[in-house]
Amino acid sequence: MITARTKSLVTGGAGFLGSNLCKKLIDNGNDVICIDNLHTGRLTNIEGLSTKTNFTFIEHDIRQPLPSILKVDEIYNLACPASPPHYQADPVYTFETSILGVRNVLCHAEKNNAKVLHASTSEVYGDPLVHPQHESYWGNVNPMGIRSCYDEGKRGAETLIHDYALIRGVEAKLVRIFNTYGENMRADDGRVVSNFICQAIKGKDITVYGDGSQTRSFCYVDDLIDGIVAVMESGKVASPYNLGNPNEFSMLELAEVVLKLTGSQSQIIKLPLPKDDPKQRQPVIDKIHKELGWSPKVQLHEGLGATIEYFNNEINQKRFA
Ligand code: NAD
Ligand code: UDP
After folding, report:
1. Is residue 60 in a domain?
2. 78 alpha carbon to ligand 1 midpoint, in Å?
């Protein structure tokens, strides 16, 4: 018996996580439509997929309704700038992409009777007063600051997921992604892992913001993508899942690890800490582990090794944007 292939739509599919997700879904045998307006994404991230017959790229801004001609079984909504310098460059755009974008995705899913998985973020916890962060924590977010367009946009999007699921019956799920790194990040992305690695490779100063004692917990991209697909397949509707690696590091520790792994002679310098920068962040992942059996497998040294190799290639090929 021939079974129809799942038709997956990935918004933000030319970005860092989206392109890795498209590749995974293609490898799983799905038909994949990638929607992206190339705001921070790059065609080079999906050039290896563009020759596949089951892959289609459509340039489209999700602030506008999705093309009604697209019939799909499931939609992964990843479109949104995610790096602080990128999402702060045009805060109104970021907020609109979060809110109007998820509304358009949910409308399209409702019409197609399709499932949705929305990429939310650990930023919904803001600068958390509870540590580590469990899904039941409501967060500590400044509604009017430089991070608000992203944090509040993502919080509003969670509300829409919840209401479309409960009131309109859309099978909508969501993951709260903690800091993730790996292949297909841009060298000029501006987040800490890409900054430190590229600075170390080029022999430039390593820019630690503040005193470097603030912490993050870093997840390697392959683990993260496995978790996203697991939640789409078997996760509960309108029920947030933390997704990340609970191993927590200070930014000074991260800088030291990057220096060691690259063998770089770069110096660590201290720059002012951006406003509202969260002091600590670590996911509790008991829920996804118990319900879906997911936990990350790749530890920081191993994941950074692969990422350093990737950025060495990017820099040698001068593919910065
Ligand atoms: P990214 O910037 O690499 O990718 C975002 C993609 O969305 C880009 O390809 C961009 O061009 C596209 N995009 C932006 N606005 C759009 C619009 N209006 N219409 C269509 N496409 C648009 O970022 P990423 O790290 O891959 O993040 C992907 C998603 O995961 C985002 O929603 C982000 O909030 C979420 N997330 C990521 C992390 C992380 O550590 N990488 C952490 C938490 C949440
Ligand atoms: N950071 C840093 N140097 C950099 C970039 C970021 O010290 O060159 C710090 C930043 O202040 C934050 C942490 O690294 O405390 C993580 O920053 P990132 O932008 O990667 O993600 P987010 O703050 O959204 O978690």
Report:
1. yes
2. 5
Active-site residues: which are they? 150
Which segments of 108-261 are extended strands (E)?
115-121, 172-177, 180-181, 206-209, 215-217, 219-220, 241-243, 248-250
Residue 310: how many CB atoms within 10 A of its CB? 17
20 lines ligand 1 (CB under 6 A): no
123: helix, strand or coil:
helix
pLDDT tens digits, 48-107: 999 999 999 999 999 999 999 999 999 999 999 999 999 999 999 999 999 999 999 999
Residue nearest to atom 11 of ligand 2 (CA): 209
C-alpha span between 100 and 38 (Å, rounded): 17
* Domain annotation covers residue 172: yes
Instruction: Spell out the residues 6+ positions from residue 225 whose beta carbon is closer than 8 angstroms to its own.
Output: 17, 20, 21, 24
Q: Residues in the chain, how many?
A: 321
Helix and strand counts by DSSP (H, E) for the chain? 9, 13
The two three-digit tokens of residue 25, written as one number: 């879904």
Which pTM was predicted? Answer: 0.97
Domain that includes residue 164, residue range: 7-185+219-246+280-297
Partners of 215 in the beta sheet?
250
The CATH number assigned to the domain holding 181 equals 3.40.50.720
* C-beta of residue 76 within 8 angstroms of C-beta of residue 8: yes
pLDDT in tens, 67-79: 999 999 999 999 9
Q: Is 38 in the pocket of ligand 1 (CB under 6 A)?
A: yes
Number of folded domains that form the chain: 1
